Amino acid sequence: VLEVIQRPTLTGHQYTDENNFQMYYIGNDRFAHMEFARRLDLTFAESSAGRDRFLTITPRINTDLIVVEIFRRTALRWREHGYLIVPRWVYSSIDLRVPERKRLNKNRRSMVAHLEASALNYQVREDDAAFELFYDRMYLPTIESLFAERGYKVRRRYMRHLAKHGWFVFVHDEKGPIAGGLVVRIHGLGRWLDFRALGIINGSRSHVNAREAIYLFVLRWAERWGANTLGLGASYPFLTDGGLRHKKRWGAVVYRDVRDPFCLAVAARSDEAVERLSHLGLIFEDMNGDLRALGQGGISTVRSIPGVVSIESPQKETSLVAWFRKCARC
Predict the structure, then answer these.
(1) Which tens digit of pLDDT belongs to each residue from 127-182?
(2) For residue 268, with 0-12 CB atoms within 10 Å meaning exposed, 13-18 middle and 19 or more buried, which class applies?
(3) C-alpha angle 84-87-91 in degrees, rounded to nearest 5
């Protein structure tokens, strides 16, 4: 409700590249339109005046790709016009009732053995000094180091609110803390914990395996706490998303958050647009609400993600746009 009141209109953002491929994004989520543009290797062209948030018809815009932020309750109407319904974020979780050795593949088990043989250990804290250490010296520097302006920063006040319902897990080497993570209990969901944020001291990339260590120790501690499930937060809706693939290596399964009243309607107006989205593995929702992804013929199973069914693009059909529109109604 607040989002609608604060921003009653949607801004149009046009992006292009040197080959004149064009994307038009209608919406206010700057992280979403910047991420689409970055992954498609497009540069910003111009913005247009606000549009009515309550769009009821297909926007008539001459472009290769169009993305519109819509109310989820209007999704069927957009499907009928050939738009894929894409969640703004996809979420991951790990079933801790499954033994660790069954969750991890051979390479990941080798990584765990390496971490166990190192001098790293962990400490769980709840005090105010732990919050300052994590937020100021780990979380913020890491977001700025890895993502710059693309990074979504949780505000201090909200992070402190989360910390009242959770714990900080810090990874230590022989010199002191090198990384940390915030784990929060989700009330009303039984034995469910959420791994909400992580950071590396001073945002440094010199601490080898620090991120792997914090994942391992958070998982181990959550099991000892008695959790059945550990949520790993949100990722962008692409099979090629680095964060999503990293979570998969720890045994995560992907799901969508049905509580989000907004989603994206995506339409490809050219075969090149379909090819680009298929290369990225765009994740979308089918008519039953299950997650699927655009794939390419002969795609490697390395790109598969548990919880998402990949649909391979046809290799012989002349119109990829027609195939795309069929996917919208699958």
Answers:
(1) 999 999 999 999 999 988 877 666 678 899 999 999 999 999 999 999 999 999 99
(2) buried
(3) 140
Strands 65-71 and 262-268: antiparallel
Phi-psi region of 143 (alpha: psi -120 to 50; beta: other; left: phi over 0): alpha
pLDDT at 308: 87
Burial of 273 (0-12, 13-18, 19+ CB in 10 A): buried
This model's pTM is above 0.70:
yes
Give, in order, the Cα–Cα distances in Å from 208 to each of 57, 114, 215, 220, 232: 51, 12, 13, 20, 21
Helix axes 320-328, 271-280, angle to 10 degrees: 60
Q: What is the pLDDT of residue 95?
A: 96
Give the Cα-Cα-Cα angle 95, 96, 97 (nearest 5 degrees). 90
DSSP state of 119: S
249: left (phi over 0), alpha (psi -120 to 50) or beta: alpha
Residue numbers of the chain with a pLDDT score lower than 50: 298-302
pLDDT at 299: 40
Say which DSSP state 215 is in: H
Give strand pairing partners of 261. Answer: none
**Single-letter residue type at 254:** V
Question: What's the pLDDT at 330?
Answer: 85
Contact present, 273 and 251 (Cβ < 8 Å): no
Q: Which two tokens stand for residue 194?
A: 């959420």
Euclidean distance between CA atoms 87 and 203, whole angstroms: 30
pLDDT for residue 180? 97
